[in-house]
Design goal:
Helices cover 28% and strands 35% of the residues. By secondary structure, it is α+β, with helices and mostly antiparallel strands. The chain has one domain (2-217). Strands 4-5-6-7-11-10-9-8 form an 8-stranded antiparallel β-sheet, with helices on both faces. Strands 1-2-3 form a 3-stranded antiparallel β-sheet. A hairpin with a 2-residue loop joins strand 8 (164-170) and strand 9 (173-180). The protein is globular, with a radius of gyration of 18 Å.
Amino acid sequence: MGRYNEIMEHIELTDEMRERILSNVKAKNKRRRISRIAGAVTAAAACAAIAFGTVAVMKNTGSFGKKPGKDTTITSSQATEPTVNDALTHGAESYRNAAELSEKFGFEIHDITALPFEAESVSYSIISESFAEVVYCGKNDEECCFRVGRDTEDISGELDEFTSIESVQLNNTDVTLKGYDGKYHLASWIKDGHFFSVSLNEDTDAEILLKIAEEMTD
């Protein structure tokens, strides 16, 4: 926790980034998943930072290897992904791609190719050693979050009372869809001793989530 607080003390968001992050969070409050570790703000902040081409404005001190009193803006092209996520996510270890994430997590994780949008950025993390997470962000604020747990415990972070729940079998695996009013944003299943979840930041037709789940359960 001390390392996290030290980093956060040296991070500033621009007014434009802050306004967009808060707007995203408010839009998702009605039923957005609640992460027990990182929180919804983390993914929104990461996507917003990349969309604006600016990771953060750091107050550089000796701990960052810069001269005190000199502010430097670090763009996404200048910073490595682990630096971004270490600053924005508490308890997260970040990696460059699915292969590196798989090696560190000890379980093979593939990228999703059946996304309902074109991903402009992807982040790969292990959160508090509890689960692996891949977050895809689109240019129009679309977001897809894929998680793999170390065991069968539910790590989706979804605590809401859903009005629409449906179970479907795909590739000999029972997949549960959850959402509201006949639309869905969460698919989850257990396979090979691991809990899996895929969530979108907007409710959608069941077929879209099932297409992703079919790919990831194969």
